[in-house]
Amino acid sequence: MTTSTTAADRIGIDLGGTKIDAIVLADDGGVRFEKRVATPKTYAAILTAIADLVSEAGAHASADASVGIGAPGSLSPRTGLWRNANILDCNGKPIPQDIERLLGRPVRLENDANCFALAEALDGAGAGHGVVACFTIGTALGGGLVIDGALRHGPNNEAAEFGHTPMPWPNDSEWPLFPCFCGKAGCVEQYVSGTGLARDYAKVTGMALKGPEIVERARAGEAQAQAAIDRLADRLARLTAAIVNVVDPDIFVIGGGLSGLPELVEELGPRAGRYAFSGAAQVKVARARHGEKSGVRGAARLW
Ligand SMILES: [Zn+2]
User: Fold this and answer.
1) 15-to-46, 80, 266 alpha-carbon distances in Å
2) Which end of the chain has fewer CB within 10 Å, C or N?
3) Which residues pair with 35 in a beta bridge?
4) Which residue stretches of 220-267 are H helix?
5) Which of 47-84 are b and which e, b meaning 16 or more Cβ less than 10 Å from the residue's Cβ?
């Protein structure tokens, strides 16, 4: 049912590797519509799927509703083309213009981890804090930094790429540093992610398991799985401390598939505090409030 409103509603789309989420947010934050579809294989089919979702969502939104889209990767300020997406067919394409042409209305497109950060900073776990740093820890490691309610992009649109900063204070067991797909070696994402956890566990045990399986084994009491999670937590703490040493955020918000682990949320503050310069920093950490909906809610909040 279409509901009349005084303020414009916001349509959000979250493009992921396996699914596309849509939402309609009312001005008061209420949800008017939600839908999820599988991500098609080709760029053209992805554009069509997004257009169909926006059209369907539009039937539940005010006529002047805005459209915001979150996607992996980012827009190059130099070329205007999308880059660094793990949905490879999207790279090198002028996604915003292509979608605007299909929809016949303006859209805003943003990195998905930035959308997560925006949602959590505005009305999620980071609400009421001036500087909110966010990690999404799933298969990969995403980052976002919100300052006084606005995403920090920087002139190169590279702010808060925490996953591709070098892992701080590597210990003897961490050499040689693992090569990253970005061309460097030792990027934090190669260690602090489900993929990194799996590689680390395999290095010690010789067993190739996925991140969630390792978590399951740890919770069942397997010592080697727990040790791998403790190493993951220690590495995340080092990254967190390095960010404290640069901008000292008011709060860190943790989301993504591995954010259910207390080692990565409840235990992160004290661990990171010990790594910070003073050795005794009080680092505030919270788990994302909107769960897997943070990304699509943040996309809607791009306007
Ligand atoms: Zn990298």
Assistant:
1) 9, 19, 29
2) N
3) 22
4) 223-246
5) bebbbebbeebbebbbeebbbbbbbbbbbeeeeeebeb
**Three-state SS annotation for 154-206:** CCCCCCCCHHHCECCCCCHHHCCCCECCCCCECEHHHCCCHHHHHHHHHHHHC
Residue 191 CA: distances (Å) to CA of 70, 114, 196, 242 = 25, 21, 4, 15
Distance 219 CA to ligand 1 centre (A): 30
Task: Enumerate residue ranges in the chain where pLDDT < 70.
Answer: 1-6
Is the N-terminal amide bond of 176 cis, ω within 30° of 0?
yes
**pLDDT score for 5:** 44
Q: How far is the CA of 32 from the centre of ligand 1 (A)?
A: 39
CA of 85 to the centre of ligand 1 (A): 13
Span from the CA of 162 to the centroid of ligand 1 (angstroms) = 9
pLDDT for the residue 2: 47
Set out the domains of the chain in order of their start, with CATH numbers: 10-112+293-300 (3.30.420.40), 125-287 (3.30.420.40)
What is this model's ipTM? 0.99
Give the distance (Å) from ligand 1 centre to CA of residue 73: 13
User: What proportion of the chain, given as a percentage, has pLDDT over 90?
Assistant: 90
Distances, alpha carbon 26 to alpha carbons 4, 11, 80, in Å? 10, 9, 31
Neighbours of ion ligand 1 (CB under 5 A): 164, 180, 182, 187
What Cα–Cα distance (Å) separates residue 123 from each residue in 142, 257, 260, 267?
19, 20, 20, 24
Distance from Cα 268 to the centre of ligand 1, integer Å: 23
Cα of 166 from ligand 1 centre, angstroms? 8
Distance in Å, CA 34 to ligand 1 centroid = 34
